[in-house]
Design a protein that fits this description.
With 324 residues, this protein is of the alpha/beta class. It has helices at residues 3-11, 15-19, 71-79, 101-108, 128-142, 170-189, 212-219, 222-227, 247-257, 276-284, 302-306, 312-322; strands spanning 35-37, 60-65, 86-90, 112-116, 148-152, 194-199, 230-234, 262-267, 293-299. Helix 5 (128-142) packs parallel to helix 6 and helix 10 packs parallel to helix 12 (312-322).
């Protein structure tokens, strides 16, 4: 999640969320277990969420959970949806993979799972070797219950070079690239599916070098550009002057940069209560001409907004899923 989203969580009075979090994030992470799931959309293959091999869905109805409790309510909400969702679990910093084994297994029983290896806000706290060790630990233990591995979150964000950074030196950028490249190798060697999430910051970057397409074209290694299974875009309108992007143009450019990857929205949401239903409709009904667009959306506030399943916003999302 973005920094502004983290601040919004605190201002909303989410004291319980803050208490279970070692710190607020810029990419959607809270300590003690979290998760996320995808995006929605209309046209595209596999609207039913049918399996596309190795446990990954063809069309992704993504949701994000930023903690794995209350687990019974979370699994009940996920399991009652009209279509099988993909739950993105945000794995917290400094937390061993074993802490997620029971919850990830339970969630995998009712949902596909995308594991976010580390939230973007904490990437700067890990040296490249430590980031790779983390990938090895998580993939080794949780591989059977994670269908997609998000090897890098909001990877072009300035804050990956330092939590308060507004720009990155070439050496800092090289370290970020080494981390995602190492994690990619770990997942690929294990036979898993890889995803990379970029941060869409059109006209709202701190440094022009970190503009999404500029950064990706310059820094993502060619092997990853050719071989990533998924490339997602994280976008928060609240962070970017309420801009509604030209999504067909964004994904056409993304498709050219990543010619073999499935594409989608990897994170979205708003803390503004009055806008939540409107934005769920907007992102989960998004239809694009790009044939490799597979939905996603991964609403950041699924646990807060749609658990338990009696929450009105759960019904909004489920109605979209159930529509022909």
């Amino acid at each position: 999640m973005s920094i502004s989203v983290a601040v919004a969580l605190l201002s909303m009075g989410c004291a319980e969320d803050a208490a279970t979090t070692s710190s607020v994030t810029t990419g959607g992470q809270s300590s003690g277990g979290s998760g996320s799931g995808g995006s929605g959309g209309g046209g595209g293959s596999g609207g039913s969420g049918a399996t596309g091999g190795a446990g990954a869905p063809e069309w992704i109805w993504g949701v994000t959970i930023d903690a794995t409790e209350p687990l019974p309510d979370i699994t009940a909400a996920l399991g009652k949806h009209a279509k099988k969702p993909t739950t993105r679990i945000v794995f917290d910093e400094l937390v061993p993979a074993s802490d997620y084994q029971a919850s990830a297994t339970a969630i995998h029983g009712v949902s596909f799972v995308m594991g976010e290896l580390l939230d973007s806000f904490y990437v700067s706290q890990y040296a490249p070797a430590d980031y790779v060790k983390r990938a090895e630990e998580y993939v080794s233990l949780l591989g059977p219950v994670v269908d997609i591995w998000e090897i890098g979150n909001e990877i072009n964000g300035e804050w990956l070079c330092g939590q308060q950074a507004s720009s990155c030196s070439p050496a800092q950028t090289a370290e970020v690239v080494a981390k995602i490249e190492g994690a990619f190798d770990v997942v690929q060697k294990a036979g898993g599916k890889t995803a990379l999430t970029l941060y869409l910051n059109q006209d709202c970057w701190s440094s022009p070098d970190n503009e999404m397409f500029t950064w990706a074209s310059k820094n993502v290694p060619n092997q990853l550009r050719q071989e990533l299974d998924y490339v997602f875009v994280s976008y928060y309108e609240d962070d970017c002057n309420d801009l509604q992007p030209d999504w067909p143009a964004v994904f056409a450019q993304l498709a050219a940069l990543f010619p073999n990857s499935k594409l989608g929205i990897g994170e979205c949401g708003t803390a503004q209560v009055a806008k939540k239903a409107e934005w769920v409709e907007r992102y989960y009904t998004l239809k694009l001409p790009e044939p490799r667009f597979v939905g996603g959306s991964f609403w950041w506030y699924y646990r807060q907004d749609m658990v338990p399943h009696s929450e009105p916003l759960w019904g909004v999302l489920d109605g979209i899923m159930a529509a022909p």
